[in-house]
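Troubleshooting: if your tokenizer reports a length mismatch, compare your output against this known-good record of 159 residues.
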Amino acid sequence: MKSVGDLFAIWAVLGPDVAALGTSGADPEQAAELRRLTVEGNALLAGPLDRDRVVRFIDITERLFDLLAVASRNDRLIEVYRSLAGEMWRVLTLILIAAESVDALLAAGVTWDSTFDRGDALTATRIFRDVTAATRASAMAVLGDRPQIDDGVVVPLRR
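Known-good structure output:
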């Protein structure tokens, strides 16, 4: 749980800048693609999430955030983002497969699409923080409900 908590802590620091700089720096073509990816991702979250839909959603999310990083035009930010992205998407995949509900994620993410059209960095930052908080809460709930092996005995992660 500490490792996932640490990952979300750094993601909460880095992610808002990726969202803000990418949103404000996106050219019209990039903004259109960001909007399209958001609409497609939200449509997947609105239906029942089987493994195939989760994998498709993660692929869309990864493409969306990679495009935001590229649109930031900040090579260092892109490099740091990409160093964390693979682990983040793996954790998110596991969380979504195990989660019973994604309502909080869907509610936090539904307003992304028009934010890209306006280049609204402030709103992008707020939405990103809401989505990250909802995702972190889901991750901790899922991990807290999973058993682990402790000296050969299966015990809950919460103590």
